[in-house]
Amino acid sequence: MWLPWLPWALALLLTASCSEPADRASIFADLSPAELRAVRTFLMGRPELGLSPSQGGPLAKNSLFLVELLPPPKRRALRFLEHGGARPPREARAVLFFGAQAEPNVTELAVGPLPSPSSYRALPVGRGRSAPFSARPMTRREYELLHGALVAALAPLEPLLLEATGFGFQNCSERCLTFSDIAPRGLGPGERRTWLVIQRFVEGYFLHPAGLEVLLDHGDPEPRRWSVQRLWYNGRYFGSVRELAESHARGSLALARLPEPPARQQLFSSYEPRGRFPGGTRTDVHGAKVCEPQGRRYRLRGNRLEYGGWSLAFRLRSSAGLQLFDVRFGGERLAYELSVQEAIAFYGGHSPAAMQTKYMDAGWAMGASSYELARGVDCPESATFLDAHHMLDADGPVRFPNALCVFELPTGVPLRRHFDSDFQGGFHFYAGLEGRALVLRTTSTVYNYDYIWDFLLYPNGVLEAKVHATGYIHATFYTPEGRRYGSRVHTHLLGNIHTHLVHYKVDLDVAGSGNSFETMDIAFENISNPWSAGARVSGDQGRGGTGTIPAPGLSPPLTCRRYHLAVTRRHENEPSSSSIYSQNDPWDPPVTFESFIRDNETIEDQDLVAWVTVGFLHVPHAEDIPNTATPGNAVGFFLRPFNFFNEDPSVASRAAVIVRPLDPPLCSQVHIERWTPASAGPCVHPEPFTYNGTSRPV
């Protein structure tokens, strides 16, 4: 539904001249369950929208898909944060699927003011007023209908599947087959044709493809008109289910018979321990732990986090994940926003599903895939755990317990240290500062892959953004032709080569919003030695320059990843480099990052945004079984001060140790200076391990 711009009802607004820092941070806080319910109740009650419940019913309906915070405009937020201006009205972003009309589309609304919404207005979706209905993300209801259509369509193949795999689809309660869907869903705009990888439903089913891939067209809002268009089985293409079934019945089909899966304890895709380390290291006892012997040194109030000189506000967007606001050190803002934008994995392969796969995880709502973190595994036992509430493809808010954690981490390496030798077997002094960082963490489990998202705050004014990739590889059925595109990681399993790319938005405000961008190029020079005639000196020199740093070229929806770093003018109508619609409409996406940088605007003394891309190539190998491990599969970037402070700000830390000899050069007695207790004390967390693992409506 295309809606005109509607005026907001005026409300009495209080100024923030006396507001506390935690209160100021609350303008960026995620919507509470009560606010989520209020938005849904208001919209469901608007007759002109004609909304139906999200769950159940047909696809051709009007429904509410997503509700999350709509952050205030930057200028209005800064007036509130810096100048005691009025508190910005609190608003929600609502994504509506309008499928029950002549021209189905996806429309976004701003709803407010919260906590008691009374009006809404249309939000632009990229370059237009709405997104095509075919670009909408998948819903639980569409998956239910997709499964039903697949089971019905593959009924003639049940004898083949039972003979080859021992598992089936029909009337199944155990020893069942399942599927994973890949995207993009077609080859051009408006299509919704998905390749489905058929798998045996055992623990770690992502590593158990059955050798069958099915192309199912589900673009029509009426599921009765859905159809299977192509199939691929054990290296061969078939034009219909009937053709494949007849080939099997004639005995002319090369059947890929899979062995009976062993018990879970021996299943290669299971986490069950098996084997022994040759060195005899005990693994049935606890190893090293993180602890806080004198209590927590950070302060957490609502969504405001303080540590050392750092302070920031944070939220967990349902659409794209962690987002930091108003990032300060020593009370001075360094960044207005630092946020995850997109995570991409594109694959190569011989099977149709593998060669088609280009995952853009914002389209799978990676922020709402923030399932429970396990105490002592995902985060230290001493961490503070926070719940998240999402309303995505649901008829009310859903609580995700322990979805975020905050903890102080010993880095295991000094922040800085020096041993000042006297070169006679003694020393003048030793000084060191223990390495610590505060970690804000969440995860996104987007089906097979698990991303661990971290922001780390160091006491020397350095901020690190990091992501670890783990979970199950996206694997396909092994054929000899597939060896060009990966590794044979198990008998019938090909680990497909792929590239991970992660995109971040960094809205830096260094000494104000008016910034410029400069790179330093290092060049080798060879000059005459000024103090020795006839001699020459070689070395490096630095010189300034501006521009973007290019990376390999990519197709339209991936253009923001074409650059390791790109710097643009900040605009309110360019809040994100990607969208939840790019995955299912990559050919004509609503948001095209290239337009951000092709408008030829000056970036000198302007409000600038740095768009950062990090990534790595993953060639799967046998050691990715059962899961990809985090060592060697982490990428990120640092924000480091460069002549911003007069000295390293970590000199304010009292965690330093200084040792000076009292009788140099003998050094038989020393004077030790430290400003923390001599002993850290006991370091054991008293609570036993607990884990729930559920997310429930609230």
From TrEMBL:
Cofactor requirement: Cu cation
GO molecular function: copper ion binding; diamine oxidase activity; primary methylamine oxidase activity; quinone binding
Residues in Copper amine oxidase catalytic domain copies: 289-526, 562-650
InterPro entries according to UniProt: Cu_Am_Ox_Cu-bd, Cu_Am_ox_TPQ-bd, Cu_amine_oxidase, Cu_amine_oxidase_C, Cu_amine_oxidase_C_sf, Cu_amine_oxidase_N-reg, Cu_amine_oxidase_N2, Cu_amine_oxidase_N3
Residues recorded with modification 2',4',5'-topaquinone: Y449
One GO term (biological process): response to antibiotic
An example Gene Ontology CC term for this record: plasma membrane
Residues forming the catalytic site: D361 (proton acceptor), Y449 (schiff-base intermediate with substrate)
Record keywords, A-Z: Copper, Metal-binding, Oxidoreductase, Signal, TPQ
Processing after translation: Topaquinone (TPQ) is generated by copper-dependent autoxidation of a specific tyrosyl residue.
E.C. number(s) listed in UniProt: 1.4.3.-
Chain ranges of the Copper amine oxidase N3-terminal domain: 136-236
Keyword Oxidoreductase among record annotations: yes
Enzyme kind, highest EC tier: oxidoreductase
Protein's recorded name: Amine oxidase
Source organism per UniProt: Erithacus rubecula (European robin)
